[in-house]
Amino acid sequence: MSKYLLMLLVAFVTMSCSKKVEVTGNFAGGSPLERIEFIEASGVATLPLVNMGVDAKGNFAGSFDAPKDGMYIMTYGGKQANIYLKGGQKLNISGQAVNFPAKFTVTGDAKKNNDFLQEIQTLIQDYAGKINVQELVSKDEAAFLKGVEKIRADLDKHIDTAAKKTSPDKDVIEFKKDELNASILGLMNQYEMNHGQITQNAAFKVTKNFTDAEAKLKKEEGRLLKNQPIYRNYLLGKLSPEFQKYSEAHKVTATEPSSIEFSKFLDTKKDMSQLAKDYLLAFVISNSDINPSTTPADAAKISKLVQDKIKDVEIKKDLERIQFVISGPKIGEAAPSSKLITIEGKEFKLSDIKGKPAMVMFYASWNPYISESAMPVMKEVANFYKSKMDFVFVNLDDTKDQFTKTSNAMLSGIKGTKVYAENGMNSQIAKDLGIYGFKLPSFMVIDKDGKVASKVFYNLGDEELIKVLDKMTGLKAPEAPQGAVLQNDLVEPPMAMPETPASK
User: Fold this and answer.
1) 288-302 b/e with 16+ CB inside 10 Å = b?
2) Among residues 339, 355, 319, 313, which one has the least CA distance to residue 446?
């Protein structure tokens, strides 16, 4: 009996500690080329946790490990919705594709929490539509503070009303109340920044009553920093005038990555917590200085800044991951040895490339306009360099059958090795190279010794890519006509936190 009870206890603990979220669903009337992704909304690395395919009938299914319990961004058809998820949940999402994100239904373990979000969002939207911000900001300080406290108290009651109706978990109620406080702080910052100008009172400054009201709303700052991106936006807004003065005084130029100077500015803020500095610096780094056009020299500076200045382990790890995803593996590293499968069913690895350099293309059938834009240019590139370079086409579709159909149709007439990454976007090579849906199609070069010879490119017309190909082959590519558009550039991952949609 005791052994049986122990097994039950172990099973219970395992289930209660599980981070895995299992999702099924259907969006009727949608395109089978669309994808569904989930992104943790409060983190620094706004990278998809999963990429799910949608079949011809609108069905989808997948699972992912949730980094934390909280708000997640769900993307579909180029649109975004918020959904509250907890590790260990199983849920179903359904609706009409044309109505997303305004309306969809969540059932299963996540139903009550998302019913609550839908209910409170409706109440908040009705209430917010009656607020005249311009009039509120023009009032004297005492009247403004009285006004914003009434707004906070009214919306707090609405949250409690919605909670009684839908019975959500305590943590999602806490989340919405924290979000309310962060929103009120943002409104207070608007008042502080704009009241003097609106009332033509250049000498205007807020009093201790105002700062005391702010401090009361910031009582749980650690939790606000970790869970509420709008609170971080509030802090950045507060710091903006000071940073502008700092930049002018220190004659900051655009030659250095902006985050380096912002880090120096944060060093002067002795009263700011290290966690706040970490989150604010991470925001500036990820939004301003980590992108496909970042030079290797600047990337090295950013890497050093992250190592020296970011103290929070998770924030540091997220920034390192973003850098890797955008730039890819380091030049000179051995190509990954992840197992791939040729169209004939044989095993293949990029690390096996030897004797001749190779250009590697990563793609999937669901990439927008790939047949019309990328493939015609790819054919020209392959034909020009084929005598001195091999070509490998890595397919990341959901199934091997789809790979076979896609490669035969899309790569017809292009000489090269056609291989499939088993499990598509969830394959090992996707993890090893930081490949996400927004990075497809993408290209990299492997040298004759099986080592990485270039960064990851997203445009076949990139001058830097052409230089690498010329160097690897000893050939000289003809210049493209001025103004020619060879392929769409990288579309970066979403950063903003959207409004909460209806859940039913």
Assistant:
1) ebbebebeeebbebb
2) 355
Q: Is the pTM higher than 0.70? A: yes
pLDDT < 70: residue spans in the chain: 1-17, 252-254, 480-504
User: All domains of the chain, ordered by start, with CATH?
Assistant: 20-109 (2.60.40.1120), 125-327 (no CATH), 340-473 (3.40.30.10)
Are 233 and 42 spatial neighbours (Cβ–Cβ below 8 Å)?
no
Q: Which two tokens stand for residue 321?
A: 């991951």
Query: Tokens 């939207």 map to which residue?
Result: 125
CA distance 239 to 281: 12
**What pLDDT, on the 0 to 100 scale, is given for residue 255?**
79
Neighbours of 40 (CB within 10 A): 21
Using one digit for the tens of pLDDT, what is the confidence trace for 188-202? 999 999 999 999 999
Angle (CA) 284-286-289 rounded to 5° is 75
Pairing relationship of beta strands 358-363 and 105-108 according to DSSP bridges: unpaired
| Distances in whole angstroms, Cα of residue 248 to Cα of each of 134, 197, 203, 240, 242 | 30, 22, 21, 12, 10
E-assigned strand segments in 404-446: 417-420, 442-446
Q: How many helices (H) and strands (E) does the chain have?
A: 16, 14
314 contacts: CB under 8 Å, gap ≥ 6: none
How far is CA 484 from each of CA 26, 343, 383, 475, 480, rounded to the nearest angstrom?
Answer: 40, 34, 19, 21, 7
Question: pLDDT by residue (tens digit) across 440-451?
Answer: 999 999 999 999
What are the structure tokens assigned to 233, written together? 């936006």
Distance (Å, rounded) from C-alpha 350 to C-alpha 356? 12
Give yes or no for a contact between 141 and 188, defined as CB atoms under 8 angstroms apart: no
The backbone region for 450, taken as left when phi is positive above 0, alpha when psi lies in -120 to 50, beta otherwise, is left
